């Protein structure tokens, strides 16, 4: 048994476990980790100064690097661009924050000003330059000029705010924007016209309610328009972006899509959000899909903790990592997206807090715990089986992924969440072919720091420090 520096620093470790990895038992292939640009990019994208006066690197550039650069940040590969409904121009409706309004590119029907939403577009372009491989264009509401009440919100109640005669016009606008971005070299992969259709959306932000049958009709109109555009070959529709995994409503929206022959042929995956969804809700939906739609993948396209109050500690970092691990293990999601990347504070949502007047920001522990997955579990890696005693499985929620790194080396990436005050130690079984080990730790003391690089053999005792999210990488 090799004694490592990490071991000597963590005396009093809990009795070690044995974990067995079986790379021959495979689950989902990972497509991406990402976040959205709502609603911060439309102002942070204009912060081209260095408020600290130290590096000469602007706030927007530093934030972009933290999110999308794999060397200095967490290497996200998906970016969700908010395609606004025009409430920023009209000033109609009731909004809790001015930044929750969004511009549209229209100046009149079919006429576009591509210089609009410039700050958000700056972040879109920079994300792609730094490594984002897939972009999702998503709408919270149709264009205001197309809605029944002329606003990007409902006046009251749960009814559709878009009449069927405007479905095609809505689709045309979104596809025009998609064609423009594709022409600019933006890797638009998905178009998502509907967001959390079961909710009312009478205030706070742009939003629109749809019943399941209306959801199906909107997607059919979008599919008609998409299939007429050669420039958008390879772009897919995504949705229905249900706000949660549980309940009959989620199944109803799923069936609105997959119960239609044309849509079922087009949709390779269902995208939903993990808000208010416990393990039982996720298990129930996963079982439903296994029985009725076994060949359809799942993506988790939006989540934050939904808790009031700022948090810069490991507490919310643990919760985020636990949510990722559970969605990976229970739902077999192929993609996982945090809601907003940047936020003003007062809520457990952003990965980075920003002070708008000063342009100063703070990278949070939950940014780095997200990076324990996103920086190392790359597109194309496959989740493989990892097993231990029930206590270790329940407390550390281990996940394992096999892939080939950029150097052409086979590697095994494992993420462990240790919320306990004691370190956890274990031997890995089934990993005798690997020869090197590296550990990357997010904790009170470290922000995704490399805390160990060493030779590895089958008798190496792996230590996960107390109060940490740790990525262990074995390389052949």
C-alpha-based Rg, rounded: 23 Å
According to DSSP, the number of beta strands is: 23
CATH architecture heading of the largest domain: Alpha-Beta Barrel
- N-to-C CA distance: 19 Å
The largest sheet, given as strand count, sense and whether it forms a barrel, is: 9 strands, mixed
| Share in β-strands | 25-35%
Classified in CATH, the superfamily of the largest domain is Glycosidases
- State the helicity in percent bands: 25-40%
Description:
The protein has 476 residues and is α/β, with parallel strands linked by helices. The chain folds into two domains: 5-26 and 384-475, Immunoglobulin-like (Sandwich), CATH 2.60.40.1180; 33-376, Glycosidases (TIM Barrel), CATH 3.20.20. Helices cover 28% and strands 26% of the residues. The chain contains 13 helices and 23 strands. It has a nine-stranded mixed beta sheet with strand order 21-20-23-18-17-16-1-19-22. A six-stranded parallel beta sheet has the order 8-7-6-3-2-12, with helices on one face. α10 (279-292) links the parallel β10 and β11. α11 packs parallel to α12 (365-374). The relative contact order is 0.15.
């Amino acid at each position: 048994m090799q004694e490592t520096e990490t071991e000597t620093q963590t005396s009093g470790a809990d009795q070690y476990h044995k974990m067995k990895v079986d790379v021959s038992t495979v689950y989902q292939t990972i497509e991406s980790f990402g976040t959205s640009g709502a609603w911060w990019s439309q102002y942070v994208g204009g912060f081209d100064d260095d408020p600290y006066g130290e590096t000469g690197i602007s706030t927007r550039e530093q934030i972009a690097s933290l999110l999308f650069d794999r060397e200095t940040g967490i290497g996200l590969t998906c970016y969700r661009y908010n395609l606004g409904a025009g409430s920023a121009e009209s000033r109609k409706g009731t909004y809790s924050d001015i930044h929750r309004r969004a511009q549209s590119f229209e100046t009149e029907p079919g006429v576009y000003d591509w210089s609009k939403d410039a700050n958000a577009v700056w972040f879109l372009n920079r994300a792609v330059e730094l490594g984002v491989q897939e972009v999702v264009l998503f709408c919270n509401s149709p264009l205001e000029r197309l809605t029944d009440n002329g606003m990007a919100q409902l006046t009251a109640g749960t009814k559709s705010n878009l009449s069927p005669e405007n479905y095609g016009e809505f689709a045309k606008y979104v596809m025009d924007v998609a064609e423009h971005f594709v022409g600019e070299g933006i890797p638009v992969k998905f178009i998502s016209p509907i967001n959390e259709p079961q909710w009312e959306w009478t205030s706070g932000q742009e939003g629109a309610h749809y019943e399941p049958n209306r959801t199906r009709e909107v997607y059919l109109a979008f599919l008609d328009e998409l299939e007429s555009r050669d420039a958008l070959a390879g772009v897919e529709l995504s949705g229905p972006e249900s706000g949660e995994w549980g309940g009959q409503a989620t199944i109803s929206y799923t069936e609105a899509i997959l119960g239609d022959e044309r849509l079922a042929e087009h949709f390779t995956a269902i995208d939903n959000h993990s808000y208010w969804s416990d393990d039982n809700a996720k298990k129930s939906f996963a079982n439903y899909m296994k029985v009725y739609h076994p060949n359809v993948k799942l993506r988790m396209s939006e989540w934050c903790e939904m808790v009031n109050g700022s948090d810069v500690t490991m507490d919310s970092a643990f919760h985020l990592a636990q949510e990722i691990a559970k969605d990976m293990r229970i739902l077999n999601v192929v993609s996982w997206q945090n809601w907003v990347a940047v936020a003003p504070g007062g809520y457990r949502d952003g990965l980075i807090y920003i002070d708008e007047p000063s342009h100063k920001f703070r990278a949070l522990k939950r940014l780095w715990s997200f990076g324990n997955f996103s920086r190392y579990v790359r597109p194309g890696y496959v989740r493989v089986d990892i097993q231990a005693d029930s206590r270790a499985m329940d407390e550390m929620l281990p996940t394992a992924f096999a892939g080939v790194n950029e150097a052409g080396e086979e590697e095994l990436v494992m993420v462990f969440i240790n919320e306990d005050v004691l370190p956890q130690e274990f031997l890995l079984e089934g990993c005798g072919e690997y020869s090197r080990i590296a550990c990357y730790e997010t904790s009170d003391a470290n922000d995704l720091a490399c805390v160990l690089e060493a030779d590895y053999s089958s008798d190496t005792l792996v230590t996960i420090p107390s109060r940490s999210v740790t990525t262990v990488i074995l390389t052949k």
